[in-house]
Amino acid sequence: MRPEDRNTTDNCLAYREVSAPEYAATAARTFERTWISKNHLMLSGPCPRCSCFMEVQLVSEVFKTPGAWAAGPEPFICEGADRPHPGSPPGETGCGASWLYAVPGSHE
C-alpha cells in the first residue's frame, strides 16, 4: 500500500482489546505481503477492525530453526497503526485488535 493510500481520517475507533475470527480472514484477503528474505515477511494494509494503515514484520528465525512457520503455531498479530486511538494505554498505538495470521507458503 502506498503512503498516500493510508487512512488519514481523525475518526479512529476507541481502543479495545478484542479478537475475532473475521480479523484473520480480512487480513489474509487485504494485506500486501512482501518477502524481504526467505524467513522475513512484511505485511501491510488496513487493520481489519479500524481500517488504519499498519505494517507488521514477521521473522521465522530468531531463536527458531528454518521453516518454523510450517511446524509451529501461526504468528499472533496485534494491530499497531502508527497513531494512538482514543482510550489507548499511554505510549501505545493501535486499536487493540489481535488475530492469528496464517503465513502463506514459504518464499523460495
Described by strand count, sense and barrel closure, the largest sheet is: 3 strands, mixed
Q: How many angstroms does the end-to-end distance come to?
A: 23 Å
Structural class: alpha+beta
- The H-and-E topology, N to C, reads as EHEEEHEE
As an assembly, this protein is single chain
Low-confidence stretches: 1-9
Helix amount, in percent? 10-25%
Q: Give me the Rg, rounded.
A: 14 Å
Q: Report the total helices.
A: 2
Shape: globular
Lateral strand order in the biggest sheet: 1-6-5
Bin the strand percentage: 25-35%
State mean pLDDT (0 to 100 scale). 76
Domain tally: 1
Number of DSSP E strands = 6
Summarize the structure in words:
The chain is built from two helices and six strands, in the order βαβββαββ. It is of the alpha+beta class. The protein has one domain (15-100). A three-stranded mixed β-sheet has the order 1-6-5. The longest helix has 10 residues, at 21-30. The protein is globular, with a radius of gyration of 14 Å. Mean pLDDT is 76; it is low at 1-9.
Summarize the structure.
The chain has 108 residues and is of the alpha+beta class.
Output the keywords:
about 110 residues; alpha+beta; three-stranded mixed beta sheet; three-stranded antiparallel beta sheet; 6 strands; globular; disordered N terminus
Secondary-structure blueprint:
Layout: E1 18-19, H1 21-30, E2 32-37, E3 40-46, E4 53-59, H2 68-71, E5 76-78, E6 97-100
Parallel strand pairs: 1-6
Antiparallel strand pairs: 2-3, 3-4, 5-6
